[in-house]
Amino acid sequence: GLMPENKRNDFLIYQKFKAELDEYFAALASDKLAIHPSVSTIAGRIFLNPSYLNSVIKSVSGKTASELIQEKTILEAKSYLMHTDLRITEVAFKLGIDNVSYFNRLFKKTTALTPSAFKKSHRS
User: Fold this and answer.
1) Average pLDDT of 77-105?
2) DSSP assignments along the chain, one per residue
3) Using alpha carbons only, what angle is made at residue 105 by residues 104 and 107, rounded to the nearest 5 degrees?
4) pTM score, two decimals?
5) Are 122 and 79 in contact (CB under 8 A)?
6) CA 79/CA 64 separation, integer angstroms
7) Non-local CB neighbours of 14 within 8 Å, separated by 6+ positions
8) pLDDT of 21-58, one tens digit each?
């Protein structure tokens, strides 16, 4: 089916955002970057205004760009906790987060477990 032009454009921006986010986290993983991405970081990388990007993301996905960044962060965190022997601090650093208590709070808010509890439950 044909999408109206503006809807298709929004969807393409959404796809671009997701791809850029994946790339950004890959760069963090390989230590090419060391700073956690913000909405404006990603917006800048795809040459869009952050608040415009946010409204497009929200209209396509029902979530804000920062919620998607957080989900991606937690997904990557879980993967590190399950598949590597990195300490919690190191996992946070790998995600570009230098404040470990912030990382703990974010993780717990999203998963209801602390990173260490999550690690234990998956490394039995």
Assistant:
1) 97
2) -PPPHHHHHHHHHHHHHHHHHHHHHHHHHTTS--S---HHHHHHHTT--HHHHHHHHHHHHSS-HHHHHHHHHHHHHHHHHHH----HHHHHHHTT---HHHHHHHHHHHHSS-HHHHHHHH--
3) 65
4) 0.92
5) no
6) 23
7) 56, 57, 60, 61
8) 999 999 999 999 999 999 999 999 999 999 999 999 99
